[in-house]
Structures are given as structure tokens and as C-alpha cells.
Design goal:
It is a single chain. This protein is mainly β and 304 residues long. Helices cover 0% and strands 42% of the residues. It has strands spanning 17-22, 25-30, 36-38, 46-51, 57-62, 69-74, 81-82, 105-106, 112-117, 120-125, 132-135, 140-145, 151-156, 164-169, 174-177, 185-191, 197-204, 207-214, 222-223, 230-236, 241-247, 255-261, 268-269, 276-281. It has a 4-stranded antiparallel beta sheet, with no helix packed on it. The protein is globular, with a radius of gyration of 21 Å. 40% of the residues are buried.
């Protein structure tokens, strides 16, 4: 008989990098080399980065111009662009809470950005143009959208004293409550790549844990962490991993980053010098900057 075909090696997905907040500024951690690179600096304060699906850009809140607005830049730190131009702080004091993590989010194709201001949900082109209202007067924060664009999930405490998950049917303009917690709050939600699971931290008082539920109806809650100190979770490495930050114990109350398998096993420490609000950026090779060298001779003028 002919010999069996040689086995096809399973392609190894490059781990990419994490963009997170360290000492009030954005930094990038390369997951292969463990090298940390500053992305922002100065007197400003940055909050809640969200990396694009291609891993080439990150959107975040910054008060570099005096009040908090949404900004965007490349993951190598270049090309900062202001996206919103509110005259008052768009990121209100109540939303500057790591357990809530009121980040903007990207549409799966990377062409649009979803965000919340003053309890209303907006969507705009990735360059900041053509902002449109999605949902008004629902005290909404933390919006994110499904891959088909049909459902927008968000958090709201409009009907409760706590934050629960809600779903907006975009075409029908109807909303549905997904979770029904009465004494716990949901914060920092995000959607798995297949759209079946929602990842978040569940918190009250000084207790906060990472959970997942089914996106359709909030059923099948799974506790990913059990240390009462975990928050700001995000999917990473194509949902194979979950990254989050956690408070230290005893006198060490600083936040650092950790990574676990999607089922909560094999915890790995990523930082020891502080870190919060991680967002995973897939491996992306930035295009080289082309420097044009001026010609030594001028062209011959033609006509006038």
C-alpha cells in the first residue's frame, strides 16, 4: 500500500500583544518577548483601551486636550487621532471605574466604533466621521455588537439598582434583558468570537469575579476566577485565553495582569509592575514608513 501522507502541522497562531493601562498611560506588552512599550506619555490620563480586530489600532479615552474624549492611535504608538469632540467630560466620573470598564468597542470588520456618552449609544466610522445614534435614554454603557450587526449588547441600570446585560435588536428597535441580578453588578462585558458567550466581571462591594454566560439568554453562568479580586476580563488568542487584572493580597493592593485558559485553568502572571484594562491585539505587522528622498535636480517647468 502507498505510504500515508505526511501529517499537516497545526498552524501556530502568533500570540500578538496586549494594550493596557499602566500608571495612567497606555502601554503594549508583546506576548512573545514580554517586552513592554509605552504608547502614551505626558500629563494626560488614559482609560479603557480597545484594540481593533486586525490588531493595528487601539481606541481609548484620554483627557490630553483637557476633557475626556475618544482617541485612536496605531498599536506602535504613532498617529494619535481625536474621534469625539465633546466640550465636557464624555467619560463621566461614575464611569471611571475599573470594575465597570466603560470601553468603546469595534465592529467585527473594524470599520466602525461603538461607544456610549451620557447613557446613549452611538456608532461612528473608524475615522470618527458619520456618528449615528443607536439607542437613546436607556442609561447605557459598555456597548458591543455581534458579527452580523443585528444585536447590540450593553449594560444598564435603568430598571434596577444594579447593572445588568441587555440586548438591542437593531432592526426592530426592541430591547431585551439578558441577566437578572438584583444584588450584583455586571462590568466589562465582551463577546466571544462565535457570539455564543459573554465574558464579564460580576461585582459588589469589594468582591469581584470573572464569569461567562450564554449570550442568548444569560443562562449557564460559569465562574472563571474564584479569588474575589478579578476584574476587566477580555478574550485573547482567538478565545483560547482570557486576560484580566486582579488586586494583590495583604498590603499589596496593586493591580496586575494575568492570563488563564478559557475554562479558568493554568493561571499565568503577565505583569508585576502594575496593569489594568487589558485588550488583546492580534499579531499585526505595521507597514514600513516610506521616506521620500528629494531629487537633487528640479524638474523642467512645463507651460505656465
Amino acid at each position: 500500500p502507498p505510504p500515508p501522507p505526511p501529517p499537516v502541522p497545526t498552524p501556530v497562531v502568533p500570540p500578538g500583544s496586549l494594550v493596557f493601562v499602566q500608571r495612567g498611560h497606555l502601554v503594549r506588552l508583546d506576548l512573545e518577548s514580554s517586552q513592554i512599550t509605552p504608547l502614551t506619555s505626558g500629563k494626560s490620563t488614559e482609560w479603557f483601551p480597545a484594540c481593533s480586530p486586525k490588531g493595528d489600532q487601539v481606541v481609548y479615552w484620554s483627557n490630553v486636550e483637557g476633557v475626556y474624549n475618544l482617541w485612536k492611535r496605531n498599536v506602535d504608538g504613532t498617529g494619535p487621532i481625536q474621534l469625539t469632540f465633546e466640550e465636557n467630560d464624555s467619560l463621566q466620573t461614575s464611569d471611571q471605574n475599573l470594575r465597570v470598564n466603560a470601553a468603546a468597542s469595534w465592529a467585527p470588520d473594524g470599520k466602525r466604533i461603538l461607544y456610549a456618552i451620557y447613557g446613549d449609544i452611538w456608532i461612528m466610522d473608524a475615522d470618527g466621521y458619520n456618528p449615528e445614534t443607536v439607542l437613546l435614554q436607556h442609561n447605557a454603557i459598555c456597548p458591543f455588537i455581534t458579527s452580523d450587526g443585528k444585536i447590540v449588547y450593553y449594560l444598564s441600570n435603568a430598571d434596577d439598582m444594579v447593572y445588568n446585560l441587555w440586548a438591542l435588536n437593531v432592526s426592530e428597535k426592541t430591547v431585551k434583558k439578558i441577566t437578572n441580578y438584583t444584588d450584583w453588578n455586571i462590568g466589562s462585558p465582551s463577546l466571544s468570537m462565535d457570539g455564543k458567550k459573554i465574558l464579564f466581571n460580576l461585582y459588589r462591594a469589594n468582591l469581584t469575579q470573572v464569569y461567562t454566560v450564554n449570550s442568548s439568554d444569560g443562562s449557564d453562568p460559569v465562574n472563571i476566577t474564584n479569588n474575589n479580586r478579578s476584574l476587566c476580563p477580555k478574550y485573547a488568542l482567538n478565545d483560547k485565553k482570557i486576560v484580566y487584572c486582579a488586586f494583590g493580597t495583604g498590603e499589596d493592593v496593586s493591580l496586575n495582569l494575568f492570563m488563564v485558559n478559557s475554562n479558568g485553568t493554568e493561571t499565568k502572571t503577565l505583569t508585576t509592575e502594575g496593569g489594568s484594562s487589558p485588550s488583546w491585539a492580534p499579531r499585526y505587522v505595521m507597514a514600513p514608513v516610506v521616506v521620500l528622498t528629494p531629487s537633487t535636480s528640479l524638474p523642467t517647468p512645463v507651460g505656465k
